[in-house]
Design goal:
This protein has 87 residues and is an alpha/beta fold. It has four helices and three strands, in the order ααβαβαβ.
Length: 87
């Protein structure tokens, strides 16, 4: 579980995976005409992928165990629904 300082480091240092993965996930959905609906982002982290999906018209339920990451996700993707869950 991350605290605020490590959550920011993780977001800035390792967010590239989510930035590259989100379009690859959205592409086949859109190709099949799925342009809306609910995306459940398990391990949503700082909300990078959630931000991508929301911008393309999807509803997003983001789930993470880290309260610090959920705070970042709420700031980054305010229209998503990030929720913290216990392990």
């Amino acid at each position: 579980m991350y605290f605020d300082d490590l959550a920011v480091v993780h977001d800035e240092g390792f967010g590239d995976l989510a930035r590259r993965a989100a379009p690859e996930i959205a592409r086949p959905l859109r190709a099949r005409g799925i342009r809306g609906g609910l995306v459940v982002d398990v391990g949503c982290g700082s909300g990078i992928a959630a931000q991508h999906f929301v911008a393309r018209g999807y509803e997003v339920l983001g789930i993470d165990v880290s309260a610090a990451m959920i705070r970042l996700a709420r700031a980054k993707a305010p229209r998503a629904l990030p929720r913290r869950v216990d392990r």
